Amino acid sequence: MQHSISVRDLTLNFGAVSVLKTLNLDVAEGEFVVLLGPSGCGKSTLLNCLAGLLDITDGQIWIKGRNVTWAEPSERGIGMVFQSYALYPQMTVRGNLSFGLKNARMPKDEIDRRVARAAEILQIGPLLDRKPAALSGGQRQRVAIGRALVRDVDVFLFDEPLSNLDAKLRSELRVEIKRLHARLGNTMVYVTHDQIEALTLADRIAVMRGGIIQQLDAPQTIYNKPANLFVAGFIGSPSMNFLHGAVTDQGRAFAVAGAKLDLSGYDGGSPVAMDKAILGLRPEHITIAADPEPGQSIPATVEIDEPMGADSLVWLTTGGAQLSVRVPVERRLAPGTQVHLRVDITKASLFDAQTEQRI
User: Fold this and answer.
1) What is the pLDDT of residues 74-102, one digit of tens each?
2) What sequence ranges are listed for the domain ABC transporter (predicted)?
3) Which of 180, 202, 233 represents a domain boundary (last residue)?
4) Coil, helix or strand at residue 216
5) What is the CATH number of the domain that holds 343?
6) How far, in Å, CA of 43 to CA of 48, rounded?
7) 121 burial level (CB within 10 Å; 0-12, 13-18, 19+)
8) Do residues 179 and 203 share a domain?
C-alpha cells in the first residue's frame, strides 16, 4: 500500500516538556484520518508538524514519498484549513481564493479555472463578489476550505475547522466535508475533539493522549473494541459503563455486585482468572428486566430516567457503580425501582485493572 503520509519516530519537546513521544503514523493514499483526543493531547501539534509550522525535535516526516522533515510549508504539497477562518476582510471571496495563486504568479486563466472549480464544488458561486463581513460563519468556513482547495494539492490538513460553528452548521458542514472527500479522493488529516465528527468522517481514527497514539483503527473497531480503558471511556456519549470486579472460575465468570456473569461468549478469547478486572459495557448493550437470569444479569436500582427524544437514558446504581442504559422512550422507570440488568457479553470489553489494556 502506498502511503501518502508517513511519520517515523517523531518527537517534539518544548524545553523539558515532551509533547509528542516517538510517534509513528502512516496515512494511505486517499485516506481520511481523524486525530481525536482531549485538549492538550498533541493532536493539533502533530498537524502543525505535518504542515511544517513547527520544527520537530527528532524523527522524520514523509509526504508523497518525499522527506519533508525540514521543508518549508509551501514546499510540502499540502493545503491547510485552520480553526479560525483567517480571511482577508478587505478582499472579496474571489480575492481571498485567488490571492495565494496570484502571489505564485500563476496565469490568470488558470487562476480563474481553479476559483470557478472550488466555487462549484463548495457551492459558493453566488458569494464570489461578497466580502467576508457579509457572509455567515458556515459560508466563511467554506471559503477557508476553498482557499486550500484552489492550491490543487494531494494532502489536506484540517485543524478543528467546525469548532467555531453552532451545532446545526457543524452537522451541515460535516456532511459537506464528507462529500468533498468522496468527490476529490484526496488524503485528509482532520483534527477534532468532537467524537461525532470523528466517527462520521473518518476511515480511521487515531485516538491520542499525552502525545501518544493510544489506538489507530476504523471507527467501529474503536467503538466496539477499544484498546484500553482511556479509549473506551473517551469514545461514546454517554461513555462506556465500567464495572469493577474479578475474573473467577478459571476465567469463565466475572464476579460483580454479588452476581456472576458468564464470560463464555466474550469476544476477546478466554481470559485468565484475576482479582481485579473491569468489564466495559455500552449503554445499548444492556437491557433492563424485572427478573434475574443466572449468569446473564446483575441487580440494580434506578436513579434517574432521562428522556432523550428518540429513546431514554436510564441511570442506575449497582455494586457502588453508576451505569447508563438506553431504553425505548415509552418505557418509564421510577427512581428507586429495583431491576435486573441483562448483559450482552458478546459486545463487552474486559480490561486488566492494573495495565488498563483490553483483554
Assistant:
1) 899 999 988 887 888 999 999 999 998 88
2) 5-235
3) 233
4) strand
5) 2.40.50.140
6) 9
7) middle
8) yes
